[in-house]
Design brief:
Blueprint (H helix, E strand, L loop, with lengths): L2 H32 L1 H5 L18 E6 L6 E7 L6 E5 L10 H6 L5 E5 L23 H14 L5 E6 L1 H12 L4 E7 L4 H10 L1 H6 L1 H5 L5 H19 L13 H12 L7 H11 L13 E6 L20 E6 L6 H4 L1 H13 L1
Parallel strand pairs: 3-4, 3-5, 5-6, 6-7, 7-8
Antiparallel strand pairs: 1-2, 2-4
Helix pairs in contact: 4-5
């Protein structure tokens, strides 16, 4: 390990420890105020909520990938002879975040929304927990996408992605340009832009505090599960981070997302391990060029990522279109589904 990398690693752990100390104090006070039983108590969800079995969204399916042996769960809508639109969700979500797109584009595409590696009903590699983080590197995640396209019987796709799914999609489009006809990313920057922006904008560095917290072992998992996954309520409904339309995420929708992380046998560390692997095993080609036509949709009320992260994307994407959705949160495709669908439809017709 080079000296520069050792210094970056030490600084990262220092920042992580700082935020971890703050979180420990907050957790302790919460446990005292509401009681340890409430803090550590969470309900295991045995059965899918009804919203996840809505037949209007499509049919549930499973495929087993060749290299990893993992069984992937997905929901698909549209005829098999139509071109593939593959939708990759973010954290802390699941396939259900694409419910509006599944219904809208089924007449023109075979729309497939999988649970990513370790999420929901998609299997997670062993070992579970913190020690399994190396199994969630971008090389593993992009290979999952490649094999999933093949397992679904296609040779290419229109790739649609949000948040963490977008990180995977950016790198997949760089590594496998022949497999991506068009790319649509939502509220996630190109990694080349993000890395530079983080070092020059302290405001974004502060907004990314959770990325450092997630580097610590076990503590993030405890926080995530506390008070029956109250964190999910915060990310989807809080004033800072949540959807700006209160009706965008119903109580039943929220229960659907909780099921993703509270079903029997699920690896709660999986989604957090994505962040651990990204910081410890960063991709070498993060400054690569995306050659396919690319649309970026960005909600300008994102509580985690600044709008400035959209600037400079055209340096990495020659055929680039940016559409900002005023008043939409980080969860743009759920917060303003009709606006996002309209933007997608018009761009896809070009």
């Amino acid at each position: 390990m080079s000296l520069a990398r050792m210094i970056r690693s030490a600084m990262g752990w220092l920042v992580a420890s700082f935020y971890g100390s703050i979180m420990l104090v907050t957790m302790t006070l919460s446990a005292i105020r509401r009681g340890p039983r409430a803090f550590f108590g969470y309900k295991v969800r045995q059965d899918r909520p009804k919203c996840l079995d809505d037949p209007d969204l499509g049919t549930h399916g499973y495929v087993r990938l060749e290299s990893s042996g993992l069984r992937f769960h997905y929901v698909a809508a549209g005829e098999r002879d139509k071109p593939l639109m593959l939708c990759l969700h973010g954290f802390p979500e699941c396939w259900y975040s694409w419910r509006h797109q599944l219904k809208e584009f089924r007449n023109s595409y075979r729309v497939v929304a999988p649970d990513l590696r370790g999420y929901g009903e998609t299997e997670s590699p062993q070992p579970f927990g913190y020690r399994g983080w190396p199994n969630f590197s971008l090389s593993h995640l992009t290979n999952d996408v490649r094999e999933l396209i093949e397992a679904l019987g296609y040779s290419s796709c229109t790739l649609v992605a949000h948040d963490w799914g977008g990180i995977v999609a950016w790198n997949f489009a760089m590594d496998h340009p022949d497999l991506v006809d068009k790319l649509i990313v939502m509220n996630i920057p190109h990694l080349g832009v993000f890395m530079k922006y983080m070092t020059t904008h302290f405001s974004q560095f502060r907004r990314s505090w959770y990325m450092f917290l997630f580097q610590l072992p076990w503590l993030p998992e405890i926080v995530f599960k506390s008070f029956d996954f109250q964190m999910l309520h915060g990310v989807f409904r809080s004033k800072q981070m949540g959807c700006r339309r209160r009706e965008a995420i119903t109580d039943e929708d929220l229960e659907g997302f909780k099921y993703t992380f509270a079903r029997p046998g699920v690896n709660t560390s999986a989604g957090i391990n994505y962040y651990r692997a990204l910081m410890r095993l960063p991709p070498r080609n993060y400054k690569g060029t995306v050659t396919c036509p690319t649309l970026m949709i960005w909600g300008d009320q994102d509580g985690a990522l600044e709008v400035g992260l959209t600037e400079g994307t055209d340096k990495f994407v020659p055929d680039f279109t940016l559409k900002v959705v005023p008043g939409a949160s980080h969860w743009v495709q759920q917060d303003q589904p009709e606006v996002v669908i309209g933007i997608m439809r018009d761009w896809l017709k070009e």
